[in-house]
Each structure stands twice: as C-alpha cells, then as structure tokens.
Design goal:
Layout (H helix, E strand, L loop, with lengths): L2 H6 L5 H26 L5 H22 L6 H26 L17 H10 L3 H32 L17 H15 L9 H19 L4 H18 L1 H17 L2 H8 L8 H19 L10 H8 L14 H34 L3 H20 L9 H24 L1
C-alpha cells in the first residue's frame, strides 16, 4: 500500500505507520545533508558536492516512492511565478549553448545550473522551523570554526612574511579563491546579523558576537573589494531599518578600524574608486565595454556560455592577466551569454524572489523569524551588489549558498501557514 493510499483513506495499518516513520527519518537525513552541503562550502568542495548529490538522490527517491507532488498547494502557489522565470532562464541557457559562437563542448557547463534544485529542495524538505533554525546555527558555527583556523594560519603567515611581501599576497584563500570565500562568509554574516535585535540580553549578544567576529575578520582579510562595498551597504541598511544603536557603534568601529589598519589594507580600500591606476579596475571597465559590443552583435540568444575568453579575444586583444575570463558583472554576463530573453528570465527570477521576501517580512511578525527573513533580504541584496563587480552567479559555492538563503523566507512563510 502506497503512502498516498494511507493518507487518502486515513489508514493506520502497521505497514502505513512503518512507512510514515521511514519517511520522517528520510526527511531528517535529507535536511542533514542540505545543512552539510551549505556548511562544507566554507572548506571542502568535495564534501559539498557529495552532500549535494546525496540529498538530491534521496529527495528524488522520496518523491517517486511517495507518489506525491514535492510541494504542498501553498508552497507551489508561492513559487509558481519564480519557477516560470527560472524555466525561461534555463531554456535560454540551453538554446544559447546550442547555437553558441563556439558550440563544441558547450553543454558541459550546463550541469552547474542543476544547483537550482537547492532552492526547491530546501522548500520541499524543511518541514518545521526548529530544523531550519538548528541548520542555520550549525552552518554559522562551522563557518566560525573554519574562520578561526584561517585566522591562525593568516597570523602565522603575516608574522613570518618577508618584508617585501605585500599583504595581498598572503590574503586568506586557503580553501577556495578569496572572492568566493569572502562572498559566502558575507552572506552567512548578513543572514544572522539581524538576530542582534532579539531582546534576549547580554548572553545572546555575546554568543552571536563569538560566532560572527571570526567570520567577519576572516572575510575582511580576503581583501575582496566588492564584498567590502556590499557588506558595508547592507550593514548600514540593517542599522537604519532595525537597530540604530548598532548603526552608531558600527560607524564608530569602522572609523577606528580604518585608522588602525595597515597601510596596505588602506590602499586596498582606496583603490575601489581608482579607475586610472588600478589595473583590476581598468580591466573591468574594458571588459564591460567589450561585453556590450558582444551583446549588440548577439542580442537574442547571446554568445553561449562556452569558451568565453576565446570569443572575447575576437573582439579585443587580452592585455591584462585575468581579462576576458568573464565580464565581472552578473547582469552583463547573463545578457551576453543568454541574450535578451535569458536576461528577462534571470531578472524576473530575482525580482520575484525579492518581492516575496518583502511580502513575508511584512507578514511574519514573530520576532526570530521576522529577523531571519530580513537577514535573507540583506544577503540577497549583498549578493547582487557584489555581483555588479564579479560573476558570482557563476560560482558553484556562492550560488549554492545564495539559493539556500533565499529559500529561507519561503520555508518560514509556508510553515507558518500550516501552523496557523
């Protein structure tokens, strides 16, 4: 007898009861591997990949064996339009690769887009809010522990570095590219930062600080300028909208920290606005101009996300290291590789998610959930601000965490509907 038959006829035979227990255990296993997938992004791509594959296979098995839709009516209603935009984007990813400027091997990169399952899988499998909160805490604690390890390694490298070695050469990049590390740390920080507004006293704030501080310091020591900009703006937004006392303290500490930081780090901050002498900034401006020429030549289906540097070099000679690997901008890159309709799907997906986040933030009044949703909004904004200067939608680790974090308000809202 299928679980569907048990539910339909309210049958509580031993067979049905055993299946219910089995599926509850399976739910917990899937949730564990989703949590492990997110937590291991900070230190092991291999473990994250294995975790992703494990929970995906188990989720598909559960859907097939239960013979039930993966989403409730409430869940599907909330994600229906988002799904439509995502399908449009994925269709254009497929078509643009089919008719790519260099079509050979174009489909090999398509597998990265399977990560959209993170968004749907999280919504489908987190069935109560305590599991969600415990997973968020576990992810943050693991990020903090890894950050402490990184800070120890950095301290040893800094003390023992040759006098002529620049800080940029020893910045934190032990488990992945520094930009990748910085962006995932940024999103975790912003997700839980609003919990400072919970009225639970000194011990809660101390614990939160012990978790956030090593993640924040290690993020700063990646020396990733797009993350500096995005984090600063979003922390200001948190202070302005939810916590004015925190805002004042943050501004004062930022000024003090800037005055005390080593000169090489100050130079890194100053370089953000230097479009004349900073090679990285100049290369981005050149890439954006060249990308726009590529867009004008291939407006409908784009050039296809394949052998991008070879196509780029057809338009401009590569002069600077790293130039032409991608366009260092999410929106330009999507428009360039998938064309106008792919861009509509991408922007429609982001816009719909953001509007839903605002809706849920206004609808959910219970304190912790309300603040976690605001943290998801901050992470969403930071991802897109940082993405104005980097192709973070193309990073496996960053995209995984982003899709999980934007699923959180949907999980909270649909679970609240069930309990209400």
């Amino acid at each position: 007898m299928s679980i569907k038959s048990c539910t339909k006829f309210s049958i509580k035979t031993p067979s049905c009861m055993n299946k219910e227990v089995l599926y509850k255990r399976l739910d917990k296993i899937i949730v564990f591997f989703i949590m492990l997938h997110m937590a291991s992004l900070s230190f092991s791509i291999a473990l994250a990949s294995i975790s992703f594959g494990t929970w995906t296979v188990l989720w598909i098995f559960k859907i097939i064996s239960k013979k039930q839709p993966p989403f409730t009516e409430n869940e599907f209603r909330e994600i229906r339009l988002i799904t439509a935009f995502l399908l449009l984007y994925l269709l254009l990813e497929f078509l643009s690769r089919t008719f790519a400027v260099i079509p050979e091997g174009a489909y090999s990169g398509f597998k990265r887009l399977i990560l959209v399952l993170v968004f749907f899988g999280a919504i489908s499998n987190f069935k109560n809010l305590s599991e969600l909160k415990n997973s968020i805490i576990a992810i943050a604690v693991i990020f903090a522990l890894i950050s402490i390890y990184e800070l120890i390694r950095f301290s040893i490298s800094y003390i023992n570095r040759p006098p002529d070695k620049a800080m940029i050469d020893i910045r934190i990049s032990y488990f992945a590219h520094p930009l990748t590390i910085a962006e995932i740390k940024m999103m975790v920080i912003l997700l839980i930062l609003p919990l400072y507004s919970l009225k639970k006293g000194f011990r809660k704030n101390l614990l939160l600080t012990l978790i956030l501080l090593p993640i924040f310091i290690s993020m700063v020591l990646t020396m990733s300028r797009n993350v500096y900009i995005a984090s600063f703006i979003c922390i200001l937004l948190y202070g302005i909208f939810l916590n004015r006392k925190f805002l004042v303290g943050f501004i004062l500490l930022s000024v003090i920290a800037f005055l005390l930081m080593p000169y090489q780090m100050k130079e890194r901050v100053y370089s953000i606005t230097d479009t004349q002498n900073n090679e990285s900034n100049r290369s981005r401006i050149m890439m954006w101009k060249t990308g726009w020429q590529m867009i004008k030549d291939h407006p409908w289906l784009g050039i296809g996300d394949n052998e991008f540097m070879k196509v780029y070099s057809m338009y401009k000679k590569i002069e600077i290291t790293g130039e032409g690997s991608h366009l260092h901008n999410n929106f330009l890159m999507v428009l360039c590789v998938t064309g106008i309709f792919g861009f509509i799907g991408f922007v429609g997906f982001l816009t719909t998610v953001f509007l839903k986040q605002i809706k849920y933030f206004n609808a959910i009044k219970s304190s912790a959930e309300h603040l976690i949703i605001f943290g998801s909004i901050l992470s969403f904004l930071a991802f897109n601000i940082a993405g104005l200067f980097e192709w973070d939608f193309g990073s496996w680790q960053v995209l995984s965490l982003f899709l999980f974090i934007i699923s959180i308000p949907f999980i909270i809202f649909t679970n609240k509907l069930k309990t209400d």
